[in-house]
Fold:
Amino acid sequence: MSTATAVRTRLGDLDERRLLLLATFVPLVAFFTVVWAVPIVYALGMSLFAEPTTAPSFVGLANYLDVLTAAEFPLFLWNSVLYAVSTTVFSLLIGLALALVVNQQIRGGSVLRTMMIFPYLLPTLVVIFIWQFLFDPNIGVINQWLVSYGVVESPVAFFSTSRWAMFAVAVTSVWKFGSFAFFILLARLQAIDPNLYERARVEGASTWQAFRDITLPHLRGAILIILLVRGIWMFNKFDIIYLATGGGPLNVTTTLPIRVYELAFNEVNFGGATALAGIMFFLLAAVAVVYFRAFEPEKEVAH
Amino acid sequence: MALGEGAAGSIVPQRFQARLKRAALVVVAALVAVFVTVPVYVMVAVAVQSPTAVFSGGDVNLIVESVTFRNFAVLFQETNTVRYFFNSLVVTASSTVLSTALAVGAGYGLTRFEFTGKTLAARVVLFAYMFSPIVLAIPLYVIFYTLGLLDSYFALTMALTAISAPFTIWLMWQYFQTVPIALEESAWVRGASRTRTIWEVVLPVARPGYISAAIFAFAVAWNDFTMSRVVMSSEEMYTITVGASLFLDRVSIGWGETMAVSLLICIPPFLIAVFLQNYLLQGFNVGGLE
Amino acid sequence: MARPIHFDTVRKEYRTAGTTHVAVDGLSLSIPEGSFTTLVGPSGCGKTTTLRMIAGLETPTDGQIAFGEEEVTDQSPQDRNCAMVFQSIALYPHMSVRDNIGYGLKVQGVPKADRDDRIDEAAETLQITEQLEKMPAELSGGQQQRVAPGSAFVQDPDVLLLDEPMSDLDAKLKSELRVEVQRLHQELDATVVYVTHDQTEAMTMSDQVILLNEGRLAQFAPPGELFDAPVSKYVAEFIGTPSTNMLSATVERTDEGLALVGDGFEVTAPSDRFRDRVGESVVLGIRPQYLSTDGGRYGLVVTAEVVEQLGTEFVVHGHGPDGTPIDAVSSAFGDVDPGDRLAVGFDAEDLFVFGDDGRTICHGDALAADARSQPR
Structure:
């Protein structure tokens, strides 16, 4: 009698546990398969064909060769790197400076913190509208100031002159994404034990020494992660550049993601587009290996 | 104060130093505040004034003297803004719900069940999180095209969820690590079934986590331009970002109307920033989102 | 209704990444119904695992657990009518204190009015009536600790399990709660199993103590017996503060028969127990409380290193002539300074004798009886 109950309840419990297991993992696996695994495999497959969408014929790695040997490829790669590095470094510097300021608990610090959320939450399109307006050669506030203070003689069309387009896109991007570094660094700063600073002061360290020997080492990991992850994201950025300049003028802001879009939708060359996407995929995979090796971010969830 | 001040000589420099430091802090804070707020202010100022007031006399007049809804009126008469907003709301809402539900289930399962390959699963999620949306958009476009699903709410919802889910899953996975299993065990010991425990203990306790996740899923979907540009091809299916991105090409739409639509787009994120700030910051603390 | 708990060769293994860790090994014992039993031992000894197996939160790898006549080994925690107070307190942050306490009753389908009556009653006993409508986050740590047993109180469990419920508390609160838990035991008709690593708690509160050592049962006895008659060196060292002094000695044949000979002392040994052990080394255990400056049949010179005052008593930490650490406790050590050499004495009846394997060969009463019959 008692054994029977025991067996029955055990089965009941196991069933519920198994049900729960299915309920959590089946959607997860199904979703990742449908929207990630299948498209990636599909794209890698397409990259081996000429005209994969209409009259596919297998060409092996020819698409990759075409993309890599194209005359502009080094320029697109350089643009991507330049854009990624400059925006990442400047967002980091601005974020760091402001995080240090807000961490000092000055009056209005929390207001400043709330304000920093806005650029991040404003949709990219809105950010572009605002900066196109500010940089506009005819009615833009910035040009009016620059001209009236004599910095430039005549207004500069920032987004559409090849000399300034990348600069303008980068400023816009830093404005939007700077808060990312700010919030991460601020959280790290607030986690530093204040006793460490008090100890340093008792032991006679100056403000600068305390910053160098306590603050910086504590921020080191966060700074590296920002450089790496933000760098990857900026390298992969499409919408902000596309909306600001569409890659122009004269390709000076054409990065690899922009080129992928052009190949697919302007030139209807899906073989080339997927080959370039494949190259970006492998680049990301290489960086990801470094990231996983160096930081072991998965340790945060899997022990 | 004067008592116990042994080295009287050091008092002046120390105070001076503190004051200098304070001044430097205020200057940096002010500069950044200007850098952040002025562009937003310009948007509002242009949106709520009539173009004639803003652009009178060759200079841009940014001091708001009279508020008018003229720009909004033009927007609603001349464009499909209402329709675009409706589309955005549909896909944003469905993708937010889908992404959050997926993240809560996955986060719970990944935390509470032991299995080999957890490290691999974590890496897959993180890898997807770093992925370029445009690289994913190309094959999705071809697949949706082949299946005849282009230009549908369903396709865009899936595509948006694809880019938001890696982060929401990661966030919930981390969040559930902080929920002590003793809470669940205590419910089991008291006789609550596993399912009942999920509803009455786990989900309420996980609320701050999934509110954060929902905010990020919302932000991704609402801000999205890439996916809707690729997936939606007919004008009446455009989301507001794609629809509005084409406004400046039209003769009838000027900066006033453009800023007006921008202001409208900003309302939901603005409300989040004001009312749900803490949930948002919590999300940043586990790694932020693009 | 309280029920006895029987363990029959219970074993619990954990497998992680190819390595097997045995948390509990061959545990067989019976906890009497209605008793207050404490599971004690150093961290990692398997006491929490044992408790969780009683609750049903872990399933034994091998062996059986029964509540009275009913085997519960594979029963789920939901079906056992246990109540458990967790180390982390485990209050639901989204429920008021009242709902926290009443959650088990709600699950069982007890009507609201009924629930509230029982909660009010429990709250009065635990002196938490003012906190009932608050949320857990509004309570101090001590208040939370008081709330935690509340749910056990209203539920009328057969078995009440407490997993180190006071480990983070300060001494004053601890002693208050100790009384509270004992009152809980008196008022409930339940078998109480209490896990702690604090032997003072174990010794003062319980009817029975289960001392575990690396997953195995070291001794299962009432507290007094554990103190006076440890079955092994491990038990003698674990129970009692400061820890029992361990002096090494050898069994030797002397003119007057057998003796346990150490550095500076020679204790007569009964021949019936030590006849076969001549030449073997043994360990003599003597509690610091039994070393005194006045009297004692056997003498020992201790060099003091540190002297601590504990209320009216003084604890001398020092070492013997051969460097063995020796502690002594007495109210007469007030004027001892570090570096002083003290002559302390002890009697054979206070000794424990342990063999090479760590098991007890005999307790002092056996030696003393023998010593009386054969005066030196």
Remarks:
- The radius of gyration of chain B is 25 Å.
